[in-house]
Structures are given as C-alpha cells and as structure tokens.
Write a structure and sequence with these properties.
With 152 residues, the chain is of the alpha+beta class. The protein is built from 3 helices and 6 strands, in the order ααββββαββ. It has 2 domains: 71 residues; 63 residues, no CATH class. It has a 6-stranded mixed beta sheet with strand order 3-4-2-1-6-5. Strand 3 and strand 4 form a beta hairpin.
Length: 152
C-alpha cells in the first residue's frame, strides 16, 4: 500500500512543481519586463512583481527538494506493536471519524486520496507529528483528542 501511496505523492509533487515552475518563469518575466518599470514614485508594479518572482522561486526550490526526497524515500513497515516513527502511516479516530497521516520528511500539509482514504502528510515541523512519535496502537492524545487505531 505504501508503495502506491509514495508513487501518488511523487506524481502530485511533480505536477505541482511543473505548474509552479511555469508560474515562476512568468513572474520573473513580468518582473524584468521593461513595461513594468515604475512610472512614478508611487508605482510599485515592478517591486511587487519582483517579490512574487522571489516567492515563487523559493517555493520551486522547496518543491524540487521534496520531489528529490520522495524519489529516493523507502518507507519502513510497522507492526501493530511497534512505536510510531518516521515513515509510519497512522490511522486515528479524530472527532468520531477515521483520519490518516503519513509521517513524512517533506511536503507537510499535502493531502492525497489513496485507496478511498485522504492521507495527510505530516513533517517534523508539525506539532502533531511530534505528538505521535513513540505512541502505539491504542494510545490517545488529548490535544487534539484522538485515538490511534492502526499503524503501517
């Protein structure tokens, strides 16, 4: 199951990278276009285009890094008695419903649909990632209130 999930994540990230790279090139072209040169002291079109191009470039770098990381990532298998660690796919009961999280190295917040489930990626920068580390099936958390149902 995790192999298919990884392939899906990589495809989604690659698609996002392609779209964002195109947008970054367009923003750079707008920032350097002679037509965007300021026509007065209150005209900030060029500055705004420059900020947009810079932001897009930073996002492209982050996505390219995520694509590289997921391209070589191998997710370990976990048994029902194991402690949650990096690479775990965790099913929890949250607000009376099942929710699925993958403890991933990058692309935190990305949600992908896989085998009828919405799987959200959590990274070490996430508080929930840190709270789940070391927990086992049957453990609960108070904030957010959830119960760990399964890990894979």
């Amino acid at each position: 199951m995790k192999t298919g999930l990884l392939a899906l994540i990589l495809a989604e990230l690659s698609d996002q990278l392609s779209r964002l790279s195109k947008a970054a090139l367009e923003a750079h072209a707008a920032a350097t276009d002679p037509g965007s040169k300021a026509e007065g002291k209150y005209d900030t079109r060029s500055l705004e285009a420059s900020y947009l191009a810079s932001g897009h470039a930073r996002q492209v770098e982050e996505l390219a890094d995520a694509v590289r990381r997921f391209g070589t990532l191998r997710l370990p298998g976990f048994g029902m008695d194991d402690r949650i660690d990096a690479g775990a796919l965790v099913e929890v009961e949250l607000a009376g419903k099942a929710a699925y999280f993958l403890l991933a190295p990058a692309a935190g917040g990305l949600t992908v649909a896989h085998e009828g489930r919405e799987v959200t990626l959590l990274t070490p920068a996430s508080g929930l990632y840190l709270k789940l580390l070391g927990k086992r099936v049957g453990d609960t958390l108070d904030d957010p209130p959830l119960a760990i149902i399964e890990i894979a």
